[in-house]
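thread: overnight batch results

M.L. [08:02]
morning all. the overnight job finished for the chain we discussed friday. pasting input first so we're all looking at the same thing
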Amino acid sequence: MITVALDEQGDFENLNNKLNSEPVFIGGVLYDDCGDSNDFDTEKRRLQSYLRNVCSDAGGVYPKDLHFASEGGTNNSHIVKEVKTVFGNTIKEFLEEGTWRNYDLGFAPRRGKYYIFASLRGENGKAELLAKSVSEAVREDFASNLYLHMAEDVVERMLFHNPIANAYEDKIRGFVDHSEGIIRNIAESSLRECGCPVNQDDSVADGRFTYMYT
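M.L. [08:03]
and the structure it wrote out:
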């Protein structure tokens, strides 16, 4: 099974007028358990154990001190800063070896692999989503869709344009082909039920068809 997790940095909706003055990006971490569901469950526990060690080493509490929080006039910013320092010093070892400061975390050896990607916002965003001809419901500068569009981009690149993850290419292709067949059948059935004529474009290669209202 393939697991994709995303996190972000930046003022996506420009609430603090920092959209064009500070970095805006979405990071993606993909974990491929190589078809071993037990490895996936073990990796979740291994990751939790690693993060507990990070927080403890920084003098914090897991999971509260992984992120900034303010309560009763006080905040944990000093602890979070130290947690980030410890994390930065140890994450490479964890991703490569699955260990904490050269100590085994007490789980079965990892079989899966991590892949990391990031999508950066360009200075002008995606030009095709800023054009006046684009619906306002889609435009990045009107409907606060910047985060959604960037998240879609990073997942698409990780799954379908990933030069280093050929091991799961066949699994993804099989899923997509299966999904296309289901969508094709639903589309044709739905159009006929509402009394709309259906044009089937037989010129499309590889047995794929395009359906449209006429």
